[in-house]
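Hypothesis: this fold can be encoded by more than one sequence.
Test: take the structure tokens below, design a sequence, compare later.
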């Protein structure tokens, strides 16, 4: 998250790009993967023979840098159980927050809010799919966290979570509604109304459309209060 890095006992290692791609692919799959699938995905424009050779070379180079990071079981490869990944941890916390938001901890905001996109400078199809999957998971988790913190009376943190969700996806209406509800729970209807107006203007400027009836009703209700 935020970019590729491989660290051993806190020291960042210099990893060739091909080896980075192997590690990242295995990390995002989260399970043993057949060698043919890995080589065919990472070297999609190469012949099967050349792709297989490229995979073997990448694994050999990785072995010189971080022996044991990747485990081979027959024709499958997987990350070693000793390798921890930030995306697995963040995905696990986000899934938990969606199901049981009351079990939040202090580090969730930091983990989901400012850690950055998944491999932001990579544009392979397999990365784009996983990036979008995590983006949706992250947004739902931040919205759930915003509502849970409001319900617990942690209003400043609730607003912070809502603002983080809005920053991740500025045009996502459900994030704006969660933030406005946090403002209301905090006792700041003027902030909620101002934010609703800003979102309505932003949506018109960007897409030329109006907010949903649900958002319009929320704005009207706040205005009447």
């Amino acid at each position: 998250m935020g970019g590729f890095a491989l660290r051993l006992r806190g020291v960042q290692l210099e990893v060739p790009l091909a080896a980075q791609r192997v590690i990242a692919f295995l990390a995002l799959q989260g399970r043993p993967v057949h060698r043919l699938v890995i080589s065919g995905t990472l070297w999609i424009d190469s012949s099967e023979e050349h792709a297989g050779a490229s995979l073997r070379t990448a694994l050999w180079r990785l072995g010189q840098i971080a022996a044991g990071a990747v485990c081979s079981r027959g024709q499958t490869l997987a990350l070693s159980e000793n390798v921890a990944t930030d995306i697995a941890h963040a995905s696990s916390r986000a899934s938990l927050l969606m199901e049981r938001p009351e079990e939040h901890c202090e580090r969730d905001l930091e983990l989901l809010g400012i850690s950055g996109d998944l491999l932001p400078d990579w544009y392979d199809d397999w990365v784009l799919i996983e990036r979008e999957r995590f983006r949706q998971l992250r947004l739902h988790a931040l919205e759930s966290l915003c509502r849970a913190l409001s319900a617990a009376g942690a209003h400043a943190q609730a607003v912070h979570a809502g603002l983080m969700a809005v920053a991740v996806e500025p045009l996502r209406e459900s994030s704006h509604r969660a933030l406005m509800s946090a403002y209301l729970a905090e006792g700041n209807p003027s902030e909620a109304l101002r934010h609703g107006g800003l979102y309505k203007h932003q949506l018109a400027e960007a897409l030329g459309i109006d907010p949903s009836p649900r958002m319009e009703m929320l704005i009207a209700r706040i205005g009447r209060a």
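The chain has two domains: 7-79, 86-224. The longest helix spans residues 125-151.
Hypothesis status: open.
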